[in-house]
Sequence to fold (356 residues):
Amino acid sequence: MMKGYEIISALSNHLSENDIIVSSNGNISREAYNLLPKPQVYLRGSMGLPIPVGLGLALANPNKRITVITGDGNFLMGLGSATTAAFYKPKNLKILILDNLKYYTTGGQKTVSSVIDYVKFLESLCIEYKCSKRASQDEIEQDLSEFINSEVFSVLHLTIKEGKKDLMNIPDQPEEITEKMILRLTKLA
Amino acid sequence: MIDPSEFITFLEKKFQYICGVPCSYFKEFLAHLASHGTETQLKHVYATREDEAIGIASGVAFSGKKALVYMQNSGIGNIGDALTSLAQLYKLPMLILISYRGLEPDNDFPEHSIMGEVNEPVLKAFKVPYWNLSEDRWTIEMKAAIQKMTETSSPVVLLVKKGVLCQ
Ligand SMILES: Cc1ncc(C[n+]2csc(CCOP(=O)(O)OP(=O)(O)O)c2C)c(N)n1
Fold:
């Protein structure tokens, strides 16, 4: 099984100028900052809100592809937003759930994620592209490619192994994160 | 009551999105928005929670566009972290309409009484500037709120009492 930062690293091979990433708070944002092209929307707080932020971005930028990278703790805290996103189904919105079954950032306390059968859950929301599996080195490139290139609203749930790399804290002030993103999204093509 | 059609015409000049969780105090305004949805420029996004609505408005603001959020004041209890660690921290402008429940017309609704008492102190504690929206001076109040929102690039609130956006 792969670790979260290995998957985030692998994701960078699939991104272009047209991709915007929203990362959930804690380790995932730090990994997204250090391992992916910059600038992106790195959430430092607002636990539970990466999907709504991604949904707002997806609706406001139909020509950009928005990928939300969320931990299971964040996903569960804002579980209602899975339904909101599925209701609107923007085809330029992708949700990647990195599920270590833990609040890893705060010390590895258990979440209740293990009770969810993600295939059934995502099926019940009529999500056209959905996949739930253990993240494996052999299949990750294929999995990420299918997920991110699908022409529909898509969700990829990966069970991962906990573990982190020593990475620097995000140096940008939150308002700089905003300024850089607005510049990226409003500059003339 | 403010004429819903005039109100929406005013809003759609400044905002591209509207998102929130309803309160009966917004009944006529939201009914008008629903029945004239195709004519207006304002795109309506339904939210499951008030903090989700702030999150969606934040995504819109990260794009350099603007969203309006509406909620009952009970929703203030749900948005503390969304304001302080997202919308305020990242300097994301948005206008939040909040119904002012728990005043005299709500004497028979004890569920609103405590928030009715504390909602202004709570907004002050969160350092969110707010105005009262009134039937007579609403354009002036809206303009003042929007000017502050733009100048500070941050969320601002308009409190809406009974009868202002509902009959
Ligand atoms: C509202 C709120 N509650 C608690 C926290 C503390 N906190 C920060 S990160 C985190 C864990 C997030 O878990 P998950 O999304 O699964 O990501 P992981 O840490 O496992 O990578 C918690 C509980 C917080 N930031 N905000």
